[in-house]
């Protein structure tokens, strides 16, 4: 798989140019293609999903304020803030699987409020574990998206890295 671009928000309006780029890549690359938009809102602005194999977006959506929200609250937030509905609408509109091209939660209190941030609070593995549990329960477990790429410590994988804290590795 190839991600042809990532979060190029100022360039997304050039749909005809993106379509040309996709044609050129397809002529040379036999694998599947996606683009990595910035969350659900960014994905709604992309007009060339039909030329790709996946609707791709980052999964760094803010979930809940507070230093250590419960899993139940985090699961509910995926729905209440429209992230689940938005991803489903994209899937239905384009008839493509939705994929989180990257997602990750740090091991600090408050990670669910700002998952894109570097260490942004007191170190704690519990909020990280809860955020991953909510992700798997509401999004992955419900088969809303293809298995996401988890980003940690500069590595990408479809499973949490071994260097993750044990609680996060157990989230499912």
Please give a structural write-up:
The chain has 172 residues and is α/β, with parallel strands linked by helices. The protein has a single domain (2-169), classed as Alpha-Beta Barrel (TIM Barrel). It has six helices and six strands. The chain has helices at 15-28, 39-45, 71-80, 83-94, 125-140, 166-169, and strands spanning 2-6, 33-37, 55-58, 98-102, 150-152, 155-157. The two termini are 25 Å apart.
Which helices and strands occur, and which strands form pairs?
Blueprint: E1 2-6, H1 15-28, E2 33-37, H2 39-45, E3 55-58, H3 71-80, H4 83-94, E4 98-102, H5 125-140, E5 150-152, E6 155-157, H6 166-169
Helix pairs in contact: 2-4, 3-5
Features:
172 residues; alpha/beta; TIM Barrel; two-stranded antiparallel ribbon; 6 strands; 15% strand; elongated
Radius of gyration: 16 Å
Q: What would CATH call the homologous superfamily?
A: Glycosidases
**Proportion of residues in extended strands:** 5-15%
Structural class: alpha/beta
Strand order of the largest sheet: 1-2-3-4
Number of helices: 6
- Give the CA-based shape: elongated
């Amino acid at each position: 798989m190839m991600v042809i671009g990532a979060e190029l928000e100022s360039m997304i309006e050039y749909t005809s140019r993106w379509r040309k780029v996709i044609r050129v890549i397809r002529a040379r690359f036999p694998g599947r293609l996606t683009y990595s938009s910035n969350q659900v809102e960014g994905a709604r602005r992309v007009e060339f999903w039909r030329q790709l194999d996946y609707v791709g977006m980052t999964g760094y959506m803010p979930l809940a304020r507070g230093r250590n929200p419960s899993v139940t609250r985090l699961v509910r937030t995926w729905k209440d803030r429209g992230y689940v509905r938005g991803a489903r609408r994209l899937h239905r509109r384009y008839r493509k699987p939705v994929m989180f091209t990257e997602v990750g939660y740090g091991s600090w209190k408050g990670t669910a409020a700002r998952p894109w941030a570097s260490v942004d609070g007191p170190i704690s593995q519990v909020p990280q574990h809860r955020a991953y549990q909510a992700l798997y329960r509401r999004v992955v477990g419900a088969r809303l998206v293809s298995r996401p790429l988890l980003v940690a410590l500069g590595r990408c994988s479809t499973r949490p890295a071994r260097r993750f804290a044990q609680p996060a590795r157990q989230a499912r």
